[in-house]
Amino acid sequence: MKRVLIAGYTGAMGQKAVDLVAGMPDFEVAAGLAPSGKQGNLPAQAKIYRKLSEINESYDIWVDFTTPQAVFENVQFALQHHMRPIVGTTGLTDEQVQLLQKLAQTEGVGGLIAPNFGMSAVLLMKFAQLAAEFFPDAEIIEMHHADKKDAPSGTALATAKLIAQARQNSPESANSEETLAGVRGGDYQGVKIHAVRLPGYIAHEQVLFGGPGEALTIRQDSFDRSSFMSGVKVALLKVAELDHLVVGLENIL
């Protein structure tokens, strides 16, 4: 029986993760971590921790759906205590990911950091990577619910990185002058990223490619958080096989 600790179990994604793990054979929700300490939908026998310093035993898997401010310390703690992390929280910097990967190697613990667990989002990133070989000029629009803590989303940033890596030609430089600061969005190696935060949205992304006389748009939409659980389930089933800290769900499919 794999014993799972879910960090951020009171949040929208954390609650879905609790239900998923509770319904999987050979897995159990053994503990939850959240500052509120509320029972939520945790099983009655699960331990509840309000902070890292209260955790007094180790678990097989650490599932993290917390906040950008907490995730680095959480994953560091999990690796140091030989709990395999499955991280859906975004906001980690490239430097933090590298530090965690080095720590995982030192501790001999495998795990997964996934910018997105939705299959449609994973496919969008792969399609965008392919398209970037032929359309070096690209912009990204990502749309999320108003409560999302970080911008841009981890998925949008991961998409921009894949586009930048795959381009064979340099993008054209836009000559437009901003008459309103920031209106052209953020810039990752020439890929503009625009972040929308509005009520009613869940998670959506468009990648726009432009070329002489033509354009290509790739879009994915997540209308319910349950759509992410298929990817979390794959991670739960495969994380024990990993011998290092993997970044990207597509790398274990």
Automatic annotation (TrEMBL):
Report if keyword Acetylation is assigned: no
Dihydrodipicolinate reductase C-terminal domain spans which residues? 121-253
Q: Where does NAD(+) bind?
A: G8, Y9, T10, G11, A12, M13, G88, T89, T90, A114, P115, N116, F117
Question: Transmembrane segments in this chain: where?
Answer: none
Where is this protein found?
Cytoplasm
Which InterPro entries does the entry link to?
A: DapB_C (IPR022663), DapB_N (IPR000846), DapB_N_CS (IPR022664), DHDPR_bac (IPR023940), NAD(P)-bd_dom_sf (IPR036291)
Subunit structure as annotated in this protein's UniProt entry: Homotetramer.
- This one is known as 4-hydroxy-tetrahydrodipicolinate reductase
Q: Which organism is it from?
A: Lactobacillus corticis
